């Protein structure tokens, strides 16, 4: 498979928030091909990050229905209707559960 970033000799990876603050940088060697990252079996076994900070970043600008019980969903061509136990329903692009 061809390298999707052919102009760079070495690649690394890290996770940062929207302000550029580093959340995690796995302790891993430099790789010449980004596909080596996917094939490394132990590179992600020692990642340490703050769970609360990561969760908060993932939840930014995402409407979450806390304290509601989802009893079903209906897929349409435009998105998903989520049905709740209290009789309410919400329309969304994606449903994560």
Automatic annotation (TrEMBL):
Superkingdom of source: Eukaryota
Alphabetical list of InterPro entries matching this protein: FAD/NAD-bd_sf
Name assigned to this protein: Uncharacterized protein
Organism: Rhizophagus irregularis
């Amino acid at each position: 498979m061809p390298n999707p970033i052919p102009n760079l000799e070495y690649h690394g990876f890290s996770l940062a928030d929207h302000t550029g603050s580093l959340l995690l940088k796995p302790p891993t060697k430099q790789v010449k091909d980004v596909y080596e990252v996917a094939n490394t079996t132990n590179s992600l076994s020692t990642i340490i990050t703050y769970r609360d900070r990561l969760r908060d970043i993932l939840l930014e600008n995402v409407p979450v229905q806390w304290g509601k019980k989802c009893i079903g969903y209906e897929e349409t061509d435009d998105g998903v209707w989520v049905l709740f136990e209290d009789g309410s329903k919400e329309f969304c692009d994606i449903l994560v559960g």
